[in-house]
Amino acid sequence: MSQLPDGQTAAAGQAAADHTRQDFWRKENLNFSKPHYRLEKARRIIEKAAGGRECTLLDVGCGPATLMHMLPPNVHYYGIDIAIQRPAPNLLEADIVKAPIGFNGIRFDIVHAQGIFEYVGDVQSRKFAEIAGLLKDDGVFIVSYWNFSHRNPQDYFAHTNIQTIAEFRDDLSRHFTVDRFFPASHNFHQHWPGHKLTQAISMHVNLNIPVISPRLAVEYFACCSARPPRAG
User: Fold this and answer.
1) Are β-strands 75-81 and 55-60 bridged in parallel, bridged antiparallel, or unpaired?
2) Tens digits of per-residue pLDDT, 71-80?
3) For the chain, what is the domain count?
């Protein structure tokens, strides 16, 4: 049997790997098809940023687009993900690690990216730059990142971009003005709160607690604004 040239063999192997990765996320995303604590926290932050005005939002790594059904009608939702469950005009299927982040040339009032930057490998900085280019001048970027320095660190096998919170914020600051940076919740175990009372308290507390937060914050949120263009 004749062999393909090396370039074609590599291309075929990469295509198979990409397909496998897409199939993985098509199944994995179903675990987030119902509203959950982290997404409810994100919804509250988004609604505060929207302030009741008509605005557009791009949800990067939207999964099954659960957030779309949680937002008020004044927030016009667009989503992008490697595995779209139910195709729709406002949803785009694309691998954001390989393809530039964007949606038909639209600039957005809000860009939201939750639970995605843990999986972007070594292209984090490039993706920040792409998102910065999508924001309107007064736009807001809302992003989350896992605290890998938690006292009980847990490394999920699919994570490809592991760093400290300080390193993540440092790179974020190169592309945006970080207006707020705070824990989504605190927990001795590296998971969001399970008890209803603890969830209710954590939902309203957006504070960094010295000593405690670096060790017990499960995930951090950052609310960022676009940097003004440099003069000259």
Assistant:
1) parallel
2) 999 999 999 9
3) 1
